[in-house]
């Protein structure tokens, strides 16, 4: 039994009830035993719940109300850009001409869809300052791996096989070293300086003739713009390496600064973040990759091109790293991103960046008196505060996150980046109103006061949720992933 007397779907089951009605079979019945080996068939029917359609609808509707999403509440997850997903994007993605396409249709019959994807590539080239873009990668980390594989292919094509190391900052997203490792590289960490930026002297120390690339997001994970980016690009390029841009934080500079102009050679974008595709829970995503001209030959194939007013896929790419995803990317997310870009226009995209930065700085300054601010300087789209002050009173950052649930908010990202003790990384995005932002700030300030006056209420939170605090170690090591019928 779930809390609040919400029964499991199996507990609603009553023998003989059905939630569906199938028409009589109007085709010859096939004996599947002749087609499927016996070891793959059941001798008895599975013990599935027997419920009516009404039971099913009420059960799952009730469960859905317990889920937190962008449409139901504020989602301040730093580095995730959980902005509102405009419903016009959903409407366009559901147009029959898009939603009912089959991926194996001949290109002659899907010229409209191909034109949309080609035009999206052109817009992303302009936004990033890259020379070519592929929409094939399925998500951000997949885009990272794709970009790194192209960098690897570039070095190998030039006979530069000694370049086996990828430099990542100590504040990097965890996917950066993971993607580099999967792509066959070793990772080298470069430290941050006292201002939260890449330590230039340490960068000069770790770069060398074995450097394949530096992976960087700008602004960085602390929400700070890497003001030495041009010098960093010069150092990496002079050493023979490439500069890789993690596009997770593009929402902070979109239409204001382009990675290509900063010296980056490869960039991946998170269409499901910056360009308002719905995400969370493992997908769906889209991670297009853009490259400068010298990396174009290594793009995954096929490459979508326009020739004589016709859109088609080109497969004759002898230096390509090959296909990285079946078909050509997540088309529905691409449609949503294209709709967003065309709806906003260049002025609208600039306003996105401006409002995201204003919202983050406003929230940071209002919270600064109540929490530790490790880097007291102008931030971009997100910022980091620390709960070290509260920890001295026996309240951890995890407790603060749990207490926020009682106020109806999804907690911010906590304990990341790793180079800030008791870290909370907050990203309000541009879509939240001042009223919403103020209400969240007020909740954070109240929690800070509770920590001083009544720490137990924070330590024992949450108090109002259906499920109270879990044994997180046990939940991680021994998760219960399926229903087991009790005797």
From TrEMBL:
EC number per UniProt: 1.4.4.2
Quote the gene name from the UniProt entry. Answer: gcvPB
Give the originating organism.
Bacillus salacetis
Provide the Glycine cleavage system P-protein N-terminal domain boundaries: 34-298
Record's keyword annotation contains Oxidoreductase: yes
Q: Does the keyword Oxidoreductase apply?
A: yes
Its quaternary organisation is: The glycine cleavage system is composed of four proteins: P, T, L and H. In this organism, the P 'protein' is a heterodimer of two subunits.
Q: Which positions fall inside the Glycine dehydrogenase C-terminal domain?
A: 353-454
Q: Which Pfam families match?
A: GcvP2_C, GDC-P
Q: Which GO terms describe its cellular component?
A: cytosol; glycine cleavage complex
Can you name this protein?
A: Probable glycine dehydrogenase (decarboxylating) subunit 2
The GO terms describing molecular function are:
glycine binding; glycine dehydrogenase (decarboxylating) activity; pyridoxal phosphate binding
């Amino acid at each position: 039994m779930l809390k609040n007397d919400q029964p499991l779907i199996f507990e609603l089951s009553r023998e003989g009830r059905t939630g569906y009605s199938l028409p009589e079979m109007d085709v010859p019945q096939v004996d599947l035993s002749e087609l499927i080996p016996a070891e793959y068939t059941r001798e008895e029917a599975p013990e599935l719940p027997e419920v009516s359609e009404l039971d099913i609808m009420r059960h799952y509707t009730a469960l859905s109300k317990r889920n937190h999403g962008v449409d139901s509440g504020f989602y301040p997850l730093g580095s995730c850009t959980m902005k509102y997903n405009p419903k016009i994007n959903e409407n366009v993605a559901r147009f029959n001409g898009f939603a009912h396409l089959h991926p194996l249709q001949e290109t002659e019959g899907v010229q409209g869809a191909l034109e949309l994807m080609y035009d999206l590539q052109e817009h992303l080239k302009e936004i990033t300052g890259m020379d070519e873009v592929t929409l094939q990668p399925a998500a951000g980390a997949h885009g990272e791996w794709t970009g790194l594989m192209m960098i690897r292919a570039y070095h190998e094509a030039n006979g530069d096989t000694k370049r086996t190391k990828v430099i990542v900052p100590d504040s990097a997203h965890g996917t950066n070293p993971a993607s580099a490792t999967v792509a066959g590289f070793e990772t080298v960490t470069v430290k941050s300086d006292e201002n939260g930026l890449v330590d230039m002297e340490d960068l000069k120390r770790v770069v060398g003739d074995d450097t394949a690339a530096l992976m960087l997001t700008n602004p960085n994970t602390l929400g700070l713009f890497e003001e030495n980016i041009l010098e960093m690009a010069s150092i990496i390029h002079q050493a023979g390496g490439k500069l890789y841009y993690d596009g997770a934080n593009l929402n902070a500079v979109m239409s204001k600064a382009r990675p290509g102009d900063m010296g980056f050679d490869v960039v991946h974008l998170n269409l499901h973040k910056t360009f308002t595709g719905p995400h969370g829970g493992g997908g769906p995503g889209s991670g297009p990759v853009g490259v400068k001209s010298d990396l174009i030959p290594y793009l995954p194939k096929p490459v979508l091109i326009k020739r004589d007013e016709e859109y088609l896929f080109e497969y004759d790419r002898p230096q390509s790293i090959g296909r990285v995803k079946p078909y050509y990317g997540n088309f529905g997310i691409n449609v949503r991103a294209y709709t967003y870009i065309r709806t906003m226009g260049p002025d609208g995209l600039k306003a996105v960046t401006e409002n995201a930065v204003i919202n983050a700085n406003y929230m940071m300054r209002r919270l600064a008196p109540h929490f530790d601010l490790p880097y007291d300087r102008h931030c971009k789209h997100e910022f980091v505060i620390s709960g070290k002050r509260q920890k001295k009173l026996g309240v951890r950052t995890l407790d603060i996150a749990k207490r926020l649930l009682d106020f109806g908010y999804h907690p911010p990202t906590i304990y990341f980046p790793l180079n800030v003790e008791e870290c909370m990384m907050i990203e309000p995005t541009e879509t939240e109103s001042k009223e919403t932002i103020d209400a969240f700030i007020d909740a954070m300030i109240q929690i800070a006061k509770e920590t001083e006056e009544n720490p137990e209420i924070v330590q024992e939170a949450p108090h109002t949720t259906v499920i109270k605090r879990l044994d997180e170690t046990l939940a991680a090591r021994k998760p219960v992933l399926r229903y087991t019928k009790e005797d």
